Amino acid sequence: MTDRILSRKKSGPAGTPRNMPAAAGADLTEHLRSHGIHPTQQRIRVLKVLVDSRAHLSAEEIHGLVRAQTPRIGLATIYRTLHALKEKGLVEEHRFNDEFSRYEAMPANHHDHLICIECGKVVEFDQPLIEQLQLAAAKENHFSIVSHRLEIYGICESCAKLHKKEP
């Protein structure tokens, strides 16, 4: 499945940095501690992979990347670590167009996703007008927004060009 790794910009159109320190080990160690997570080498390496990643990764893809430095780490450890990081708000879990979860380090600023139904490409975007409209709708309906997720499914430019070339 590595050919379907979902692309992602390190920072969004508005320059949204990840809500993490630079991926230096000491910074990540302190970041984990500050969120109540004991900073084991495995947890640090999983978080570093996510912080450094330019993709929304599956647990299996994370496992493969972490195993390059920690050959004995098991997939169960990856799942437990992802669960702990998600519970503490350090990682977001997504289920786009596929049947399994993908993960990304928690961004500093909210963003939404455009997902190609042909190739699986994911593009992060920030659209202030959408955010304003959501707030207006909530206010109009006396609703307090806790969170939201916007995923727009379509066909990316590359796949659209491929379809035009087909007879």
Structure in words:
With 167 residues, the protein is of the alpha+beta class. It has one domain: Arc Repressor Mutant, subunit A. It has 6 helices and 7 strands. The strands form 3 sheets. It has a 3-stranded mixed sheet with strand order 6-5-7, with no helix packed on it. It is flat.
Which helices and strands occur, and which strands form pairs?
Elements: E1 6-7, H1 25-34, H2 41-52, E2 55-56, H3 59-67, H4 75-87, E3 91-94, E4 102-105, E5 112-116, E6 122-125, H5 128-140, E7 151-154, H6 157-165
Helix pairs in contact: 1-2, 2-3, 2-4, 3-4
What are the salient characteristics of this protein?
single chain, alpha+beta, 167 residues, 6 helices, disordered N terminus, flat, three-stranded mixed beta sheet, two-stranded antiparallel sheet, Arc Repressor Mutant, subunit A, 40% helix
| Tally of contiguous helical segments | 6
Average pLDDT, all residues:
81
Which stretches are low in confidence, meaning pLDDT under 50 for 5 or more residues running? 1-18
Element string (H = helix, E = strand) = EHHEHHEEEEHEH
Q: Can you say what the CATH homologous superfamily is?
A: Winged helix-like DNA-binding domain superfamily/Winged helix DNA-binding domain
Task: Write a compact overview of the structure shown.
With 167 residues, this protein is an alpha+beta fold. The protein is 40% helix and 15% strand.
